[in-house]
């Protein structure tokens, strides 16, 4: 592979100044012809490059044999300069890096990323060398308490954070470098804190002077330390704890955006990494942060106003960085999208502009053609920016004001002036139109809102509208402002509802319960299509509306995930949650993270059912997949946390055995989870940990820890209620049972009803090998002879006891009562038990009852139809309300949903339909349990 500069040249600047070209050629007579032509063109356009050549020609003639290796050698040499010679050594290195990167850039030998990468790598090396040189005297003089020369390796706990373009590895040709200097105060005793801070401040000032002072050898990098917290009153090097407190309490959106690109570049890189990690909650919000759009828009307008850069695009003097259609527009566009979604997706937290545009397109946050267009313009803008700065090493971004200046720029670009001007105007205009369209959805503060007169089609109750601003969501001035922009559209959508006043009252109830409004209102402002979904949900389902008002962030899933994609299934869900939990910094954060994650998927299932995208059968399976995925991902997390105190689980560990609807894989929106914990200690009597426990006690406490993890009302609420009453001996028995005890109990002591329950049991979490043994043991128990007469008699008595103890909840109670869910499930389990096998699906149990002669074919079809109808009512009803279903309190939308779920037109039809199905099923079950066994045929 050829590495010479001559072999990589793809373009050459045109000669702009003949005398400079001749002077340059005289300095490199021994260079290859292609390189001589490139150098002549470059030096003729840029006096600064000619000045570099005059000092570094001898080095250059050797370096062109392998430019990349030559530049890397210069970067590596920064660490070898003696402290007394660091200043001159770094300046000589900067000249060489600047000269070679300019030639490789102008000659098309290096892509933009190689050019900016080389400049950034040298800046990193220079900062590290200057920092060591600044700290060395402080350590030698004993000014840094407890530190010796050995501590220079990690700068005694001080770190330099590269910000902006340096942090993103995107330094421009004549860039300032933005740095934040911090130190780890935990490495010093309290009494030494002030001395340490003073020493670090002095070292920082020395580092800055080494880099930025102009000497006879030039300068290295102009250094800006003003991005630190509150720079007017804080020292140039701050304690990390003080900086963290500032960002947590006072940090602003522009500082969040700045930290997207932040990275440790010199000093204690590990401490710097830990500091940035602590700022993740500040930088990356857990919810979709559409409020950041308005902040970014306000920043754009403020920059334009401050710099006087508003108005139309006219090329002379146009600022390629801050002007309309410039570099900053593309960066704001990219970073704002990152801030919106990066809290949910770590892949969106990269530093580079082009790489992040590509990821945003891949994740469907930006259309692919937009990302590709902006990337192309970004590279072109940066190329022009570099040429403007190469002329005199000036930190300028302004296009030339004169014809001569444009002629020089065109020569550097190897273009004709008219072609250059047309290309610049086109690119700036396209960037402006694209990015302005993104921010156009938010209006500047103070912009008057023209409220559409939706009352032309419907006049809403003014008293309802007037009380909105007394609600908590409107306490924030900003939230109220955003809502005023939303209000006309929301009222128009409400007016289109079948019963607008009813829809308004439902929406009013939602707003009244909403604790804060800025984020939700910003999300609706940026995504108007969500308003229809919101109105649909709150108008139809009071339960979902209440859930939404407390957890508006679940809307994030609609925008930021595959909300309408195919259902992923239990295994994929479990893996996804495990990935989420692996990123959380603490056990408590893992529990809260599980709640947030589960809530979004729970909401997705409900919305799909509500909107007819799925049916009750599918929703039941999905609710179960979700619960089992949560148990499967959370159980090892709880176990690991418990093991930190009491050691690893003794023996083979423990599994969670799902019972009832969980074991059967069919839940509704409010289902409890029926669980048993079964463990196998082998011959290990106690755990092996800091605080050992007897195995039985260990697993009992581990079970309680899991129950707490699931049910504790943390900041993100509860996950599920847990019911363990199906364990051996019920509530009087231990919460965790050994495998041997469970097997012995089931084979020798268990009641018929416990074997009935076992027909729907399945392992949902825990070690696979132990889970397989538990499943096989359950199958063995069910295969034991179960005399049909005894089972039928027991079930008949159980029906009587249930009828006596549980009052029927009326026609809308799908669960309790003859011929309803519980009745059919009990009968189906009896058929499976008599058949000697599991039957997780009730339909399979009904089939087994027919095969065992309990019912005939007509009875089987009757029970299946009744069970399906009851499930549809149960699943739809629990989505509308977690309590007993009150059809009189349902609005029109809720009533229509309920009727649709049952395949009927009205609630009256539903009631008649359910009555007929349940009476028929009750008759079948009553006859089967009353008749001599085996006579159904």
TrEMBL record:
<feature type="domain" description="Glutamate-ammonia ligase adenylyltransferase repeated">
    <location>
        <begin position="40"/>
        <end position="275"/>
    </location>
</feature>
<dbReference type="GO" id="GO:0005524">
    <property type="term" value="F:ATP binding"/>
</dbReference>
<keyword id="KW-0808">Transferase</keyword>
<feature type="domain" description="PII-uridylyltransferase/Glutamine-synthetase adenylyltransferase">
    <location>
        <begin position="306"/>
        <end position="439"/>
    </location>
</feature>
<dbReference type="InterPro" id="IPR043519">
    <property type="entry name" value="NT_sf"/>
</dbReference>
<keyword id="KW-0547">Nucleotide-binding</keyword>
<keyword id="KW-0067">ATP-binding</keyword>
<dbReference type="GO" id="GO:0000820">
    <property type="term" value="P:regulation of glutamine family amino acid metabolic process"/>
</dbReference>
<dbReference type="GO" id="GO:0047388">
    <property type="term" value="F:[glutamine synthetase]-adenylyl-L-tyrosine phosphorylase activity"/>
</dbReference>
<keyword id="KW-0548">Nucleotidyltransferase</keyword>
<dbReference type="GO" id="GO:0005829">
    <property type="term" value="C:cytosol"/>
</dbReference>
<protein>
    <submittedName>
        <fullName>Bifunctional [glutamine synthetase] adenylyltransferase/[glutamine synthetase]-adenylyl-L-tyrosine phosphorylase</fullName>
        <ecNumber>2.7.7.89</ecNumber>
    </submittedName>
</protein>
<feature type="domain" description="PII-uridylyltransferase/Glutamine-synthetase adenylyltransferase">
    <location>
        <begin position="813"/>
        <end position="923"/>
    </location>
</feature>
<keyword id="KW-0511">Multifunctional enzyme</keyword>
<dbReference type="InterPro" id="IPR005190">
    <property type="entry name" value="GlnE_rpt_dom"/>
</dbReference>
<dbReference type="Pfam" id="PF08335">
    <property type="entry name" value="GlnD_UR_UTase"/>
</dbReference>
<dbReference type="InterPro" id="IPR023057">
    <property type="entry name" value="GlnE"/>
</dbReference>
<dbReference type="Pfam" id="PF03710">
    <property type="entry name" value="GlnE"/>
</dbReference>
<dbReference type="InterPro" id="IPR013546">
    <property type="entry name" value="PII_UdlTrfase/GS_AdlTrfase"/>
</dbReference>
<feature type="domain" description="Glutamate-ammonia ligase adenylyltransferase repeated">
    <location>
        <begin position="534"/>
        <end position="772"/>
    </location>
</feature>
<dbReference type="GO" id="GO:0008882">
    <property type="term" value="F:[glutamate-ammonia-ligase] adenylyltransferase activity"/>
</dbReference>
<keyword id="KW-0460">Magnesium</keyword>
């Amino acid at each position: 592979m050829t590495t010479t500069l001559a072999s990589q040249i793809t373009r050459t600047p045109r000669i702009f100044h003949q005398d400079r070209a001749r002077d340059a050629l005289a300095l490199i007579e021994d260079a290859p012809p292609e390189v001589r032509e490139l150098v002549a063109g470059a030096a003729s356009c840029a006096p600064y490059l000619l000045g570099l050549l005059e000092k570094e020609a001898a080095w250059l003639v050797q370096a062109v044999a392998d430019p990349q290796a030559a530049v890397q050698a210069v970067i590596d040499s920064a660490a070898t300069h003696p402290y007394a010679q660091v200043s001159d050594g770094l300046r000589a290195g900067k000249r060489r890096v600047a000269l070679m990167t300019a030639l490789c850039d102008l000659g098309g030998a290096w892509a933009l990323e190689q050019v900016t990468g080389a400049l950034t790598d040298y800046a990193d090396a220079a900062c590290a060398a200057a920092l060591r040189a600044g700290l060395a005297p402080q350590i030698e003089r004993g000014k840094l308490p407890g530190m010796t020369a050995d501590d220079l390796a990690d700068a005694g706990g001080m770190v330099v954070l590269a910000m902006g373009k340096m942090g993103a590895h995107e330094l421009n040709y004549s860039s300032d470098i933005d740095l934040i200097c911090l130190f780890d105060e935990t490495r010093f005793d309290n009494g030494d804190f002030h001395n340490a801070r003073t020493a670090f401040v002095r070292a920082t000032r020395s580092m800055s002077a080494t880099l930025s002072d102009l000497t006879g050898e030039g300068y290295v990098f102009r250094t800006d330390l003003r991005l630190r917290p509150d720079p007017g009153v804080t020292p140039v090097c701050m304690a990390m704890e003080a900086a963290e407190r500032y960002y947590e309490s006072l940090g602003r959106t522009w500082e969040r955006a700045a930290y997207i690109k932040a990275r440790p570049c010199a000093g204690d890189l590990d401490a710097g990494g830990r500091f940035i990690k602590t700022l993740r909650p500040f930088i990356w919000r857990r919810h979709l942060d559409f409020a950041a759009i308005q902040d970014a828009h306000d920043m754009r307008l403020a920059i334009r106003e401050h710099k006087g850069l508003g108005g139309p695009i006219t090329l002379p003097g146009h600022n390629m960085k801050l002007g309309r259609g410039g570099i900053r527009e593309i960066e704001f566009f990219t970073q704002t999208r990152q801030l919106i979604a990066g809290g949910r997706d770590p892949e969106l937290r990269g530093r580079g502009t082009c790489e992040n545009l590509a990821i945003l397109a891949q994740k469907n946050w930006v259309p692919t053609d937009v990302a590709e267009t902006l990337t192309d313009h970004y590279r072109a803008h940066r190329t022009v920016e570099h040429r403007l700065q190469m002329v005199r090493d000036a930190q300028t971004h302004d296009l030339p004001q004169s014809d001569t200046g444009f002629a020089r720029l065109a020569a550097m670009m190897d273009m004709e002036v008219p072609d250059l001007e047309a290309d610049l105007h086109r690119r700036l205009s396209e960037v402006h139109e694209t990015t302005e369209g993104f921010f156009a959805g938010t209006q500047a503060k103070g912009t008057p809102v023209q409220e559409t007169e939706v009352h032309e089609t419907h006049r809403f109750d003014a008293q309802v509208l007037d009380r909105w601003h007394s609600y908590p969501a409107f306490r924030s001035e900003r939230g109220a402002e955003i809502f005023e922009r939303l209000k006309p559209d929301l009222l128009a959508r409400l007016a289109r509802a079948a019963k607008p006043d009813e829809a308004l009252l439902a929406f009013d109830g939602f707003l009244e319960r909403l604790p804060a409004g800025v984020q939700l209102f910003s999300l609706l402002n940026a995504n108007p299509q969500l308003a229809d979904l919101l109105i649909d949900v709150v108008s139809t389902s009071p339960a979902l509306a209440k859930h939404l008002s407390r957890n508006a962030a679940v809307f994030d899933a609609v925008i930021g995930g595959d909300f309408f994609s195919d259902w992923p299934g239990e295994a994929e869900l479990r893996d996804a949650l495990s990935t989420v939990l692996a990123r959380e910094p603490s056990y408590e954060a893992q529990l809260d993270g599980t709640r947030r994650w589960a809530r979004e998927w729970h909401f997705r299932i409900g919305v799909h059912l509500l909107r007819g995208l799925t049916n009750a059968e599918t929703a039941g399976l999905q609710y179960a997949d979700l619960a089992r995925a949560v148990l499967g991902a959370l159980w090892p997390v709880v176990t690991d946390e418990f093991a930190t105190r009491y050691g690893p689980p003794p023996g083979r560990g423990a599994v969670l055995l799902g019972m009832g609807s969980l074991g059967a894989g069919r839940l509704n929106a409010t289902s409890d989870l029926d669980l048993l914990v079964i463990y196998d200690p082998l011959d290990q009597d106690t755990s092996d940990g800091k605080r050992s426990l007897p195995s039985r006690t260990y697993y009992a406490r581990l079970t309680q820890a899991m129950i707490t993890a699931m049910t504790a009302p943390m900041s993100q609420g509860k996950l599920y209620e847990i019911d363990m009453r199906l364990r051996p001996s019920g509530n009087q028995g231990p919460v965790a049972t050994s495998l041997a005890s469970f097997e012995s109990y089931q084979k020798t002591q268990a009641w018929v009803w416990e074997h009935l329950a076992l027909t729907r049991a399945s392992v949902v979490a825990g070690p696979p090998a132990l889970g397989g043994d538990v499943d096989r043991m359950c199958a063995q128990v069910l295969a034991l002879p179960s005399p049909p007469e005894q089972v039928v008699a027991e079930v008949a008595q159980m029906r009587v006891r249930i009828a006596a103890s549980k009052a029927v909840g009326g026609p809308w109670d799908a669960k309790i009562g003859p011929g309803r869910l519980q009745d059919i499930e009990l009968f189906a389990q009896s058929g499976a038990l008599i058949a000697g096998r599991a039957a997780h699906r009730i339909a399979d149990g009904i089939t087994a009852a027919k095969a065992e002669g309990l019912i005939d074919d007509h009875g089987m079809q009757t029970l299946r139809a009744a069970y399906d109808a009851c499930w549809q009512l149960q699943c739809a009803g629990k989505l509308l309300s977690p309590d007993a279903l009150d059809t009189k309190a349902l609005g029109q939308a809720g009533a229509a949903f309920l009727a649709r779920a049952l395949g009927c037109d009205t609630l009256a039809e539903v009631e008649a339909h359910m009555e007929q199905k349940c009476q028929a099923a009750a008759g079948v079950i009553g006859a089967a349990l009353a008749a001599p066994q085996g006579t159904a045929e």
